[in-house]
Amino acid sequence: VDGYTHEEVGYHLHIMLEAGLIRGADVTTHGAKSPEAIATSLTWAGHEFADAARNEELWAKAMELTKEKAGSVTIELIMKLLASLASSALGL
């Protein structure tokens, strides 16, 4: 991925694998700088997250609220926040 090191990409794939957002394999080797994984596909939860995060307006609002209220939050909370914002946008 342009602009990111191999280690950064591998680490983020690793935490996405642990979070259940992707299917793949842990390919961390002894002596590696950080955990690494390869992705083979998105899980259902990964598709749900990608669909929710794809809306740039909702994503920006979620990030703004997160920075303003909490600083940092878990991916699970971001997913809930995106779903809540989408529901509000639809008048639900």
Can you tell me about this structure?
With 92 residues, the protein is mainly α. The chain has two domains: 6-42, no CATH class; 47-89, no CATH class. It contains four helices and two strands. The chain has helices at residues 6-18, 44-54, 56-69, 75-89, and strands spanning 22-26, 37-42. A two-stranded antiparallel ribbon has the order 1-2. The chain is elongated, with a radius of gyration of 15 Å.
Main β-sheet: number of strands, strand sense, barrel status? 2 strands, antiparallel
**SS field, number of helical segments:** 4
β-strand amount:
5-15%
The total count of strands amounts to 2
Backbone CA Rg: 15 Å
- Total domain units: 2
Helix content: 55-70%
State the end-to-end CA separation: 37 Å
Shape: elongated
Query: What's the helix-strand series?
Result: HEEHHH
Q: Which structural class matches the secondary elements?
A: mainly alpha
The low-confidence runs, each spanning 5 or more residues with pLDDT under 50, are none
Write out the strand line-up for the largest beta sheet, numbering strands in chain order.
1-2
Mean pLDDT: 91
